[in-house]
Amino acid sequence: MNKTILATATGFGLLAIILGAFGAHGLEKVIEKTAVETFETGVRYQMYHAFFLLFLGMWDGMESNRKKVVFLVICIGILFFSFSIYLLAINELTSFDFKKIGFITPIGGSILIAGWAIFGYYILRDKTHK
Questions:
Q1: Which listed residue, of 16, 30, 64, 128, carries a Cα 20 to 30 Å from 122's Cα?
Q2: Residue (of 10, 27, 5) closest to 91 by Cα position
Q3: Which comes out higher in pLDDT, residue 47 or 2?
Q4: pLDDT value, residue 129
Q5: pTM for this one?
Q6: How many Å separate Cα 98 from the centre of its chain?
Q7: C-beta separation of 77 from 114 below 8 A
């Protein structure tokens, strides 16, 4: 069990619940429906990966240094992907045009994919567990 990973997963999960409620009950009155749906996509993927990190933190089937790599990649992916989506969704509420940084979203998605790929690679390359 890794307390750092579990605490981070808990934080991302808690934040996803808070942002999901904010999106459903606060944003629907001030931004367009498609923007709310976009916001909810960020929340959904953040929660998926919070669950992934919970599993990773509880699982004893991987070396600590490998877990750390997967953990860091997934956290960076969440921050780039979900948080850029949040900013893009509320773009009309701010004076800054977040569309200028919209290229971060697919980079974040690619980082999340890489995190899963690294996780799978480590599982397949593990010689100690069969």
A1: 16
A2: 27
A3: 47
A4: 63
A5: 0.92
A6: 19
A7: yes
69: three-class secondary structure by DSSP: helix
Per the domain annotation, does 130 fall within a domain? no
Q: Judge whether 8 lies within some domain.
A: yes
Crossing angle (nearest 10°) for helices 33-58 and 104-125: 20
Q: What is the mean pLDDT of the chain?
A: 93
CA angle 9, 11, 12 (to 5 degrees): 65
Cα separation, 88 vs 85, in Å, equals 5
The range of the structural domain enclosing residue 51 comes to: 3-125
Whether residue 47 is contained in a domain is answered as yes
DSSP codes of every residue in 70-107: HHHHHHHHHHHHHHHHHHHHTGGGSSS-GGGGTTHHHH
Give the total number of structural domains in the chain: 1
